């Protein structure tokens, strides 16, 4: 049987060769269930890990682009159980490590243990819960660990003296949030980012990823000098909105074209952090 869970994530991120690892974020069911399935399966061919958002109506930390993606999925009838079923379908055809991205409320509604069990059963490998503060995460981390799942903590430029304890608790990888505020494409990053990421790397037993605003090949080239992985959400999800528009206009050819362009763009990003040899 193939290794799953935190070990699978770690292996994938460590076996990336001379390249910064690429982690795309998409919402389950965006722009609809079939496109979402195809998108994840295509991304899996050149991604090191995939982060799959569970659509949620009150996503505090999501910027407008990710929120809209979540809404498209909800409108199409996506739910937590359906998202898990979608992950199971994806798992049947690919080995790529999968992170479930969700918020505290849906986790509590589902039941912490039930959720971990379900994640494990569908072949997910880890979890990110952005609104669960480290200080309140012991129970969830403990149960995730029982099921072999990675618990990926978020660290912000404002984490300061909490960096040590948060980073040292990371399994799978540690997620450095590049900027304050919500998710969304950005043109440039804080001057403090490199030092911050290096400080997290000092304390983290696992690879360190940078996300929030990463949207262009040149960002990834720059980040590849000091990060182990990059996470790209809004730049991809924005293109899902275009697919949705084309579908609303019954232009399935255009939708397909935008889908192909999205995959090509993601592939370019995945290769942008290759170090020259
Ligand atoms: O969209 P961006 O700026 O590329 O950022 C990644 C991001 O989408 C994904 O990791 C994410 C989606 N929603 C979040 C909420 C909090 C932290 C992270 C996230």
CA-to-CA gap between the ends? 35 Å
Number of strands: 9
Which descriptor suits the 3D outline?
A: globular
Radius of gyration, rounded? 17 Å
The unreliable regions are none
Structural class: alpha/beta
Strand residue content: 5-15%
Task: Please summarize what this structure is.
By secondary structure, the chain is α/β, with parallel strands linked by helices. Helices cover 48% and strands 12% of the residues.
Structure write-up:
Its EC number is 4.2.1.20. Tetramer of two alpha and two beta chains. This is Tryptophan synthase alpha chain. The active site is at 51 (proton acceptor), 62 (proton acceptor). Pathway: Amino-acid biosynthesis; L-tryptophan biosynthesis; L-tryptophan from chorismate: step 5/5. By secondary structure, this protein is of the alpha/beta class. It is built from 12 helices and 9 strands. It has a 9-stranded parallel beta sheet with strand order 5-4-3-2-1-9-8-7-6, sandwiched between helices. α10 (217-223) links the parallel β8 (208-211) and β9 (229-232). The longest helix has 21 residues, at 252-272. The termini are far apart. The mean pLDDT is 95. Indole-3-glycerol phosphate (IGP) is lined by residues 25, 51, 53, 61-62, 66, 130, 183-184, 211-214, 231-234.
């Amino acid at each position: 049987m193939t290794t799953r869970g935190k070990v699978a994530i770690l292996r994938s991120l460590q076996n990336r060769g001379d390249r910064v690892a690429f982690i795309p974020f998409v919402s389950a069911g965006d722009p609809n269930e079939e496109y979402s399935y195809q998108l994840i399966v295509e991304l899996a061919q050149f991604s090191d890990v995939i982060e799959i958002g569970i659509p949620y109506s009150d996503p505090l930390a999501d910027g407008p682009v990710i929120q809209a993606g979540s809404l498209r999925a909800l409108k199409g009838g996506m739910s937590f159980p359906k998202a898990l079923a979608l992950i199971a379908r994806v798992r049947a055809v690919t080995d790529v490590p999968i992170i479930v991205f969700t918020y505290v409320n849906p986790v509590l509604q589902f039941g912490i243990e039930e959720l971990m069990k379900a994640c494990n059963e569908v072949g997910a490998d880890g979890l990110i819960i952005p609104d669960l503060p480290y200080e309140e995460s012991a129970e969830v981390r403990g149960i995730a660990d029982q099921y072999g799942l990675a618990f990926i903590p978020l660290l912000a430029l404002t984490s300061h003296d909490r960096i040590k304890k948060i980073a040292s608790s990371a399994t799978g990888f540690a997620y450095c949030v590049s900027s304050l505020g919500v998710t969304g494409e950005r043109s440039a990053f804080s001057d403090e980012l490199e030092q911050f990421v290096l400080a997290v790397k000092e304390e983290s037993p696992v690879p360190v990823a940078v996300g929030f605003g990463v949207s262009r090949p040149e960002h990834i080239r720059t980040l590849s000098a000091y990060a182990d992985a990059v996470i790209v959400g809004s730049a991809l999800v924005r293109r899902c909105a275009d697919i949705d528009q084309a579908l609303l206009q019954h232009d399935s050819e255009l939708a397909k074209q935008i889908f192909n362009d999205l995959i090509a763009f993601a592939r370019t990003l995945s290769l942008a952090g290759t170090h020259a040899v």
